[in-house]
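Researcher: Here's a chain I'd like modeled. Treat it as a single chain, no partners, no ligands.
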Amino acid sequence: MDHFEEKKLNKIVDFKLLKRLHKYTKPFYWILVISILAVFLSSAADLLRPYLTKVIIDDYVSGYKDEMLVSDKPFDSDYNIEFEGYNYIREKYYLELDTSPVILDTKQLLKTEESYLLVDGFIATQIGDTDFDLKTSGDNFTLTIKESSELYGNNNTYKGRLLTHEEYKVFRENDVSGIIKITIILLLTLVLAFAFSYIQTISLNYVGQKVIYNMREDLFNHIQHLSMSYYEKNPIGRLVTRVTNDMNNINEMYANVVVGFIKDFVILFGTMVIMVRMDWKLSLLCFSTLPIVIFVSFLFRKYIRAVQRVIKLKIAEINATLSENISGMKIIQLFNKEKHMGETFDDVNTDHLNAWLREVNIYAVFRPSMNLIYSMTLVLLIFFGGNNFLKGAVELGVMVAFITYIQQYFRPIFDLSEKFNIMQAAMASLERILMILDDDEKIENDPTILLDVPFKGDIEFEHVNFSYNSDEQILKDVSFKINAGETVAIVGATGSGKTTITSLIGRFYDIQSGCIKIDGHPIKETDLQFLRSQIAVVLQDVFLFAGSIRDNITLGEDMSDEQVKDVATFVNASHFIDKFDETYDYILTEKGSTLSAGQRQLLSFARALAFDPSILILDEATSNIDTETELLIQDAITKLIRNRTTIIIAHRLSTIQHANKIIVMHKGEICEMGTHQELLEHKGRYYDLYLLQYQDEQVS
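Model: Modeled as a single isolated chain. Structure tokens:
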């Protein structure tokens, strides 16, 4: 486990990390403000819909049963009804008037399956077809209540006038217009909720993607400038995980959490306020299950946290294993180790599967548990609210609205528990990314010498000491000088420090003591980009990028087709390039696996020549090449080293006999230095190496 994963993973929100994230978010604050505003407006629309449904049911659909007041003068209200010389208004609208005429009587409008009734007085509004006897006589009726006197009192007989359908419609005109008005408002609310949700979704995802884009750019650029020692200590798969999976976790935080938290709290708080204002007793009944919800959510978050920690670690292990195995696939197949590597990957993959299954099991308990609690709350509401409705203590619209509000009340609670986990994962990912960005293990570039002309190529090592770590010193007091235009070979056993010397010239590592100069300028005081632009390295193991041959030669530099063809022809690479139908547009697979080793080497020579370096380093450039291709490569090398400083690292001494100087390394020290002939005459270590190779060649 990474040491930083132990430290802060238990924190849901780390404000220090969010403060670091501020610089990426700051350019988009105005978009976030728009998102938050859209969240409030869409939440308001969500909260308004059940209330509008309640208004339609209680005020218009069944509101006609309310008590009506009768006067011989009009009521100053839009809800005034004129019928047969009298004016009618429902009591709740009458209470809203500033001034009112004298009330003559009270009436109530009812309807049965066959009749419309205008009752003298007021009856309980929950009366149904089976609750009364209706006797008619002409236009009049007598209605007798069959329920107990405890509900309706001693007066259980009412009289009134029968209405025709047209007369009944006069009393319902306001209801029809009210339903139309509220329906239009409800429709507008739905449209606005859709619009605000669209704005919220688009803006949040835009901000999230832009933040991730900028962070990924910074992370990639930072990784490119880290020293080679960093990559020696960190698996590539883990770095890939940081740039991909961890970035996606942060994006999910923006898309689903940042403003989602606000919306959930607005919906939760707003729902509770509206429920209390409509009926505080029913509200307390619905809120009675809240402690159970909090307890279940706490347990869920506790157990899911540990599982998700394991999942993230296993994902990183899978990426690292895949990267390593795919990169080494040739060796795996060469040594017939597919089964062994498959079993190794299966172990990692199985651990990841088991962790995911544990997470699924936790969710399989949590979500049904929350649904059960919601259903229990709904049962309590229906049972107690239904009884109150029958007693006339609760209106039907309130019951309907409460059922919808309970759904809205539980949904944020469901979401908040999962959003906490998303937030926690994002915090852990953000910390990992910031730790890479904070890593200062890179070559510092603070030049005091700014050059604008190419190097001549004089190279000088002065008492250089270097080690990759404190346990073992690689170079010990190494001193030598290479004059401009010279070809110098460095030989020695494996691990003697040959490649290290070439890496230090390009300043891929910094030395512990001593000084390295080019043209008399210490390389530490020279601009790093300029320094490396003057050096070209041709390695034994050539790396080619997926793309065209042209792209692999130019590496993105602006070069004409003629320039590309000229350098390829010069190093003899055109011999095989011209055989492709697409020639320089031929697309290579990753690492150029469709080309032979010799063809890849010739492309690397073309790449080196394209940048016209002052210093050329050839590291085992002729190893493992067939004879025909080697002749082409030797010819290319002869052309490349002309008039430029060249350093050749070679095990095959026959390829370096014409070097101006040969440096023999042994255990990090220079043991001999001179021309090929001088070293043979000296009969030292070089002489022994030469005889050993000569005998091997004779035997072969």
